[in-house]
Structure formats: structure tokens, C-alpha cells
Prior knowledge:
- Its EC number is 3.1.3.18.
- GO terms for molecular function: phosphoglycolate phosphatase activity.
- Belongs to the HAD-like hydrolase superfamily. CbbY/CbbZ/Gph/YieH family.
- It is an enzyme of class 3 (hydrolase).
- Keywords: Hydrolase.
- By secondary structure, this protein is an alpha/beta fold.
- The protein has two domains: 2-11 and 85-216, Rossmann fold; 13-79.
- Helix content is 44%, strand content 10%.
- The protein contains nine helices and eight strands.
- The strands form two sheets. A six-stranded parallel β-sheet has the order 5-4-1-6-7-8, sandwiched between helices.
- Helix 1 crosses helix 3, helix 1 crosses helix 4 (62-79) and helix 3 (46-57) packs across helix 4.
Amino acid sequence: MVFDLDGTLADTSADLIAAANYCFQGLGHGDVLDPVADALTAFHGGRAMLALGYSRVDPEGAEAGVPEQYPVLLEAYGREIDRHTRLYDGAMDAVETLRGRGFAVSICTNKPEGLAESLLSRLGVRDAFDALIGADTLPTRKPDVAPYLAAVTQAGGEVERSILIGDTVTDRDTARAAGVPIVLVGFGPTGEAVAALEPDALLAHYRDLPDLAEALLP
């Protein structure tokens, strides 16, 4: 069982938005992004948040500003990575149940590996996962299939007997490239609108995941 992280296992949006706003505060613009209204952009990564902010305060400066501020954002985010972040309800109970039923569990995320390791450690759940593949673990990132394959094999699993749990089109495309089922969460940043991506299953609550996993891999 391979999990995405941001927007799938944990709601990290508020801490991500705060890190982007730290950059704009330093530029004299104050809080440009809203932690609620701009939450969806947060799950598309630091560069997407910076681009959105620049589109509001300095569109012509975005081309130079985004790469310049991205390291600042990462540093700020790393300092306060778990201030507001919360695991979704029932997530770790589901992971424990899956492990009890013989599943290996791992994470494949487009968050830099070091930040993902730090976040999971601070949340006290890193040891629950057999492997973690981040955006920079390999030369490519999702939706390229290589990170997913590594997340499965490093956890001791078999690709043809694996499932990806995610929340975005990137996760859907990764699963399709690997030829495995994709389950999208209906409680993430886009809610049940992810059904439009035509996943193999839509997850309403983590309590349903263990039985759903066994149904998808009979």
C-alpha cells in the first residue's frame, strides 16, 4: 500500500501557506496567500504558491522571484513544518490495520525527502512506514513511474499486488503508468470532486480503507 503524503495522509496546507507568506512578508507584501482559500494551491507545491502570490503583487517579477524565493520558503517551512499540520482522521488506525493484515506500507510523495522525513518524525509516525520516496530521492518524481516502483520494492512489496492512495491527478497518472489501482481520498483538498478523475475507488474515510484494499487485491 503506497500513500501520497500532502493532502492524502495529512493536511499540510496551513504550514505550507505560512512558509510562502513568510517569503512575501520579507519582500514587504505581508500575507499574500490565504490558508483556507488558497489551500488547494499549497498541495501543488512551493513554486505554485510563490507563483500565485507573485501574480497578485508583482506579476512581472515572478519569473525571477519564484526560483529566488523557493529556498527561502523551504527553510521557513522546515522550521515550522508541524505547527498546524494534522493527520487525517483514522489514517494511522488504517495503516496499523493494514499492517496487521499483512500489507507493507510506504510513502511516495513529491515533497522533498528530507522534509517528508522530518514531518513524519515530528508527527511520531515515521516508523509505521517501510519506505519513503520523496521528490528528490530519484532523478524523477511523480507522475513518472520510477518513484512509485521504488516505494513498492523498497518496502518489500510486489508492484502487481500494490495500490496507490492519493488525492490528485498526479497520483492518478502515476498509478495508471504503473498499471495499479488508484484510490483517491474524498476528504482531501478537492473533496469529492476528485471523482471526476475516475479513480478505481473513492475513499470517504480511512476506516473503509483496509476492506477496500482487500477488495481491490482479492
